[in-house]
Structure formats: structure tokens, C-alpha cells
Amino acid sequence: MAHRWKNDLTDADVTPMGAYLSRREVMAGVAGLGLASMAAPVRAAGLSLNSWEEITSYNNYYEFGTGKEDPARNAGSLTTKPWTVKIDGMVDKPGDYSFDQIMQAMTVEKRIYRFRCVEAWSMVIPWNGFELADLLKMAGVQSGAKYVAFETLYRPEEMPGLRYPVLDWPYVEGLRLDEAMHPLTIMATGLYGKPLPNQNGAPLRLVVPWKYGFKSIKSIVRISLTSKQPPTSWNKANGREYGFYSNVNPKVDHPRWSQATERAIGGGLFAKRQDTLMFNGYDEVAGLYAGMDLSKFY
Amino acid sequence: MLVDRLNAALRRVPVWAVYLVGALPPFWYLYLGLTGGLGVDPVKSMEHELGELALKLVIVGLAVTPLRRFAGVNLMKFRRSIGLVTFYLVLCHLLVWLVLDVQILSQIWVDIIKRPYITIGMVAFVLMIPLAVTSNNLSVRRLGPAWRQLHKLVYPAAILGAIHFILLRKGFQIEPLVYLAIIAVLLGLRLIPRARKGAGRRAQQA
Fewer CB within a 10 Å sphere, N or C end of chain B? Predict the structure, then answer.
């Protein structure tokens, strides 16, 4: 069922892209004059929409390289048409679903979400997508299913980063079924009303806004319903640093850095750090973890 | 010979040129950061660019002795300036982290104590302080043979700098390991025993 969640950040809160771009041009002019202090854009904490340029030029997508700008540079080579998603495991209607077939059945809506990377930076992103719950219902989730496993495309000839053993490829992620069915959890297919750029995980990716960004797996080719907790890539690489849940939590630090604060991308050189919010500000998911020790299940 | 011509050319390069060129990068990055030239996350870019540049200069500094010994290229007159510029870049890297990135004083102390890659980076920086302070003729004269011993602190500082870089990357990444490997090779070359001086001199005289 679409539209189960109403944007808490509306267009009235955030700066529309057009206005932002023209403001940037003004700022570039100001900076050119050397008026440094005026060049830092003023942003209300976590409320300003990031620009198309920011969202599409600063990505972690290690299949295209480990640098933040590598995906924008290298992902152009990715073929996203045709695209099929294999849905299998504990579902009534397993099979290969084409992207077009999925899009015909789904209701795409706009979701403005805060996005918090485990590296302690954040953005505000206007996604277009559909609720994952709707896709799972289409495939028919069987009663014993407890988890959902996701897999990213593995295509070395188009993904230069796969040459390096940074992670155990292909990239895999997972959610508990109730997390997957939550109205906040979407499969994003667009950005600013345009098709999702390759570097952001075209043609469809997961977005779970209350978890660190790496949970929001990109360019998905397989979704499996399972009864056991599936392995996840970063957890396999370093279980002490990256848990299965990876909920945004200012009180549970990453072993190598604090998670209490974050740098909002787009603030410029002199922007103040802002406080990180529990569940990235999405308190409505707290019930999913009632009774769990979140410092243990990080 | 190529080496002789290179050495002749190097002799014409004044040492102040190294200081001048070395002083520029932080200002250049500041300018880029203010005008959008460092991408959408200028703080991290600046921090990382300065850190990597400093690590590259550590390598250049460590290469001076082996280059003279094994290739006959003489960069000795630049060695102090390379070292001081390296220290200056590490200091700027640290300042960007303190002032622009972490910002919060209490957080800084927690990070230094709790986060191994930051602890290691800080130790490397602290090891470099006495080297920077004694990089002048007066100290060389006063300290005598102890000066050479003291300045061997650059070896652990270099290794710690490379480890600092390895630890801060996510996953298994090649680039920081390359830095450590180069530093290890440059330090390893110092372990090769020298031919007895007397024998060498006699051979030259003959």
C-alpha cells in the first residue's frame, strides 16, 4: 500500500533545487570576490535539500572505486536496460521480474529523507520510489520468512572496482522482515523526479533512512526471503565495526570514530557539525527494537 | 652523465624555493575549498589532501639518503627544508581536523585517546616536533652526534604515518599499503651494510 508515510520534510522546509542552484551561482560569484565568510551557505540543521550535484557527485559505491568521486566518473559504463530482479526464497511467486514489470505494478511517490552515512556525513535527499512492502507483497511472502536478503549486480566488465578485493563481492545486504515491511523502507528509482543516476544505484536501490547508508544497497538484482539472518558485506568485512542492524545511533560509536555528530554535506568549509539523531530522527521505528539492547545489536 | 647533469641542475635550485613551494598547498586548498574546487565535502578533501601530501613528502625526505648512496643524486642541501615543509603540512592537516572537522574540544580528546588511528597519527606528529625544533644549524652544533640519533625518530614517525593512513580506510584498500611498502623499502635500504670506507677511498685514489 503506497502513501503510508507522509514526508516530514516538505518543500516548504527545504530549498527547491532550482532556487538552490541559482543561490549557488550567486555564492560562486561572491566567493570569486574573495568574501569567504559569505560563501558558506546558511543551512538549517538537516533541513536543506542537497543539490543534484552534491547527491550525484559524492557517493560510496565501491564497485566503481573507493573514492567519493569515482562512482560519478566510472558508473557511466553500467548497462541498466534491460534489468531483472530475481525474487526467490520463501515467496509464493518466485521468478525474474523485469524492471518495467515492477514499475508497472508499483506506485512511485516522492520521499524526502535524511541520509546518514556511517562515515559521519549526511545529506537530505528527495527520492522517488515505492514501498518495498508492496514489492514483497507482489511476490507473496510465505509465513516462515523472517529476513530479506539483497544482492547488488556483479559485472566486472562494467564495474572496475570489482578488480580489487575491498569487499567480498558481490555486495549483499539484509533486513529483518518487519524492517523491510515498514512504510519508511523504499526501493528508490529516482532522484528529483528523474531516473536514478548510475552512481546512486540505478535502476533501483534500497533506502532505509533510519540506518547507516551502507544498508541501502544499490543496483539490486536479487531479493531473497529467508528464515535465517543473511550475511551482509560490511559485517563480513569487519563485524566489530558494522553490525547487522546498523541503526543510526549517536550513543553507539563506530570503533574508529564518534557517531554523536555529523557534517551536513553542502555546508562549506566552515559549517558547524550537527547532532546526530537517534534512528536518524525517525522515531517511528523505535517500536521495531523494543526490548533490544541496541549497543549489543548495533 | 645524467646524474652529474642532474646534480648540477639541483645545485642551481635555491633552498628557499622549496620553502616557497612547500608553503603554498594549504593556501591553495583553502582557496579551492572556498570556491567549490574541492567538491561537495571540502573539509574532508582538504584534510585528506594535506595528509597524503605530507606522507608523500615523508617519502621524499626518506629517499634523500638512499638516492645519494645508490644513485649518486645529491639532494642533501634540501633535506632540512623537505623535513620542515613536511612538518608544516602535517601541522596544517592536524589543524584542519581540529578546527574544521571535529570542532568540539571534548570530542578531540576522546578521539585522540579512544581511536587508534588518531592516537597513532598524534604519536607520529609528536615524534616530529623535536625534529622540527632542532632543524637548525645551532641545534646541529649543540647536539653533536646526538642530533643524528635524535633525527632517526623520523623512521618510526614515517611508519606510524603510513599505519594511520591504512587504519582510516574502510575495507581492504591497496593505496595506503603502497605508501607503507615504499617507506619500508626506503628504511630497509638503510640496513644494507656500507662497504668499508677505507677500501672505497683507496680505490678512488688509485
Answer: C
List domains and CATH numbers for chain A.
17-289 (3.90.420.10)
DSSP-derived secondary structure for B128-189 = HHHHHHT-SHHHHHHHTHHHHHHGGGHHHHHHHHHHHHHHHSSSS-HHHHHHHHHHHHHHHH
Cβ neighbors of A258 (< 8 A, separation 6 or more) are A120, B107, B110, B111
ipTM of this complex prediction, to 2 decimal places: 0.80
The pair phi, psi for residue B177, each rounded to 5°, is -70, -30
Interface with chain B: mutation pick from A166, A256, A276, highest number of B CBs within 10 Å = A256
CA distance A47 to A248: 18
Q: Is B48 on the interface with A (CB under 8 A)?
A: no
**Residues pairing with A84 in the sheet:** A98
Closest residue in chain A to residue B164, using alpha carbons only: A256
User: Per residue in A49-71, pLDDT tens?
Assistant: 999 999 999 999 999 999 999 99
Beta carbons of B34 and A31 less than 8 Å apart: yes
pTM: 0.85
